[in-house]
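Narrative summary of target 7.
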Amino acid sequence: MSPLVLHERQGPVAVVSLNRPDRHNSLVPELLEELLEAIAAAAIDPGVGAIVLAAEGPSFSTGGDVQAFFDRGDDVAGYAAHIVGLLNDTMLALIDTPKPVVVAVHGMVTGGSMGLVLASDIVLVADEASFTPWYGVVGFSPDGGWTAMLPDVIGRVRAADILLRNRTITAKEAVRWGLAAAVTPAIGIREEAVALAGEIADKVPGSVRSTKARLWSRRDEIARGLEDERTRFVQQIVTEDARRGMARFLGEG
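Modeled conformation, tokenized:
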């Protein structure tokens, strides 16, 4: 079985890639566990000065696998608590690692996968990249920092408009609103991210570590917000409302 997360060294840059392309890199516990391991390995590698987070296939990631939630039936609460907890752990690992993280986003980002973007330090987006919540359609409560982090990045009113209407953030909007640093062609975005990460890795390490720590000075407040998201996610997913939403989304009835 192929690994769900690939990782390699390119000079002083650790390149970590989501590798579930047949399912659009949708999040399952095994993928998040492998991602946590890859982040931890890069964090302690003395030869790594920065990390690039990327993805294989046509999409960056489409969030939690709705079919996996639906198939849990009466056990969905335990599964939801586990996977959203793993997602929160992964986001905090990206924030806590002293190595700056550059994320190369192409294709779709939906649901909880937004958290991998929000917890990165510098965001590059392909010109066709998009960000869509889908919570109100599927029947879930937001996770992945959509409420705990996104309003601080783009503003509460914009975040409300996107979440409540299920509106898509385009690549150009992502840059204009401060969610991303730059738009780049999809072909070559990973190479662009590696070059940018290499530039950062060439800086004085202590200065980089101190700068990143200060940029994430609200880390503990973010962690509390993510835990509140997890609690509300579990409360909502056990409702008939959510069951009907998942069934409709999956064409199950």
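The beta strands are 5-10, 13-18, 50-55, 101-105, 108-110, 122-126, 130-132, 169-170, 182-184.
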